[in-house]
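Supplementary Note 2. Why include the ligand at all?

Several targets in our set were suspected to adopt different conformations when bound, so apo predictions alone were not considered sufficient. For every target with a known small-molecule partner we therefore ran a joint prediction. The input for flavin-adenine dinucleotide is given below.
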Amino acid sequence: MVDPVVVVGASLGGLSAVDALRAGGHDGDVVVLEAADELPSDRPPLSKQVLAGTMEPAAARQPLAARLEELRADVRLGFRVESFDVATRRIRGADGTELQASGVVVATGAAPRRLPGPELAGVHVVRTMDDCLALKADLDRGPDRVVVVGAGFIGAEVAATCRELGLEVTLLEGAPAPMVRVLPVEVGSFVADLHRSHGVDVRLGVGVDGLEADGDRVSGVRLADGTLVPAQVVVVGIGVVPSTDWLTDSGVPLGNGVTCDETCLAAPGVVAAGDVAEWLNPHFGERMRVEQWEHAIEQGAAAGRRLLAGDGPGEPFASVPWFWSDQYDRKLQMAGRPSATDEVHVLEGSFAEQRFAVAFRRGDRCTGVLGVNRPRHVVQARMRLVESLDWAPIEELFS
Ligand SMILES: Cc1cc2nc3c(=O)[nH]c(=O)nc-3n(C[C@H](O)[C@H](O)[C@H](O)COP(=O)(O)OP(=O)(O)OC[C@H]3O[C@@H](n4cnc5c(N)ncnc54)[C@H](O)[C@@H]3O)c2cc1C
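The joint prediction is reproduced in C-alpha cell form.
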C-alpha cells in the first residue's frame, strides 16, 4: 500500500495543495491534519465584517471548504502535529499517533506574537474565529476605549472597525509611521492620517512598556515614557511568527519560516506554502515570505504540483504577490513587493484626496503598485508586473 500524502494545516495553503494534487491526477490517499477543532474559517473577514457584525460567522468559510468531499481529503481536526522526521517521513501527533507519509505539505501558517506578561481578560489577538468572537463580545460591552498595539495591516483594520462601531480608539505604533517595515514612510503616513481623519488617537514612535490590570482584567497600556493610556480592551497586532515549532528537530531547513527553493521544495518529498514558507521568488530574484490570502492559495497550488513532480526538477513558483486591506470606506490594494526604502511615485490622484495610485521604484525596476480606491490601476499594473518588473512600462501605462 502506498503511504498517503500528508498535508499539515487545513487552511488556504493546505487545502489549495490538495486541490492541485487532485487536479494533477493524484489518486492516492491524502490526509490533512489540523490542530484546530473546526475547519479554519476564512481569515480576512475576522478583522472586518465578522468583527463589525455585518457578516455571520458561518458565512466566513474559506474557499475550498465546500469541496472537501470532492477533493477526497481525509481531514482530521483536533490533530496537532508535534514532530516530524524528514529522513523517515514519519509524523507524530501530540496524542502519540504516528503516520507514515509519502510526501508532506507544510502549511501551518503563522501565530500572532503576544505581549509578555500574565494573561489578562480584555487583551486580544485576531487570528482565528474564536479570537474574533472573543474580541467582538468585549466590544459589544461598550468599552470606554480600545487600544490597538501595532499599526500593521491587522491592527489598522481592527482600529477602523472599532471606530466604525462608534468606539474611542487609540492606535499605538513603535515605528515613526504605520507599516514602515514593509512600505515607504509616505504610504505609512497616509494610513496614519486616514485614521486621524476618522477620529483615532494615533500615536507614533511610542514604545509599550506593559499592561496595567485591575484584578485579572486589563485597565490600561503603560508606555515607555511612563504615560498610561487607560483601556478596557487591548488588541495586540504586533506581527506573527511562522508556526514551525513541530519542525525544530525534523531536518527540514528553517530560517524565516520553512526555507524552500524556488519550486517550494524544502527537502526531498517535503514542500511548504503560505504564511509559513520562505522561498526564492525567481520573478524578483529575492527570498520572501508572504502573509497574504491570494498568495497562500497560489503557493499552495504550486506546492501541490511540486510534490507531483517527484524527483524531477519541478517548476519555479514565480509570483507577483497581491493583497488588499479594507479600512473605513477605503480599499487599499497592492501588487508587488516593495521595500521601505523604495522611491514613491504618485501615478494618479493624491494622498490629500485619499484616493490614489502610487508605484514603487528601485533603480530601473518597479517593485510594486499600491492603490487606494483605484482597483483598475492596480489590476492593470499587476498584469504588466507579471510580464516584467521594468520601470518603463509602468510609467507608460499611467502617462
Ligand atoms: C484577521 C486577518 C485578516 C486578514 N486579512 C487579509 C486581507 O485583507 N488580505 C490579504 O491578502 N490577507 C489577509 N490576511 C492574511 C491571510 O488570511 C493569510 O495569509 C492566510 O490565512 C494564510 O494561510 P495559510 O494556509 O498559510 O495559514 P493559516 O491560515 O495560518 O493556517 C494554518 C493552519 O495550520 C494549523 N496548524 C498550525 N500548526 C499546526 C500543527 N502543529 N499541527 C496541525 N495543524 C497546525 C493552524 O491551526 C491553521 O489552521 C488576514 C489574516 C488575518 C489573521
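The radius of gyration is 22 Å. The pocket of flavin-adenine dinucleotide is lined by residues 8-14, 33-36, 40, 43-44, 46-47, 80-81, 107-110, 126-127, 154, 243, 246, 274-276, 291-294, 296, 323-325 (CB under 6 Å). Comparable summaries for the other entries are listed in the accompanying table.
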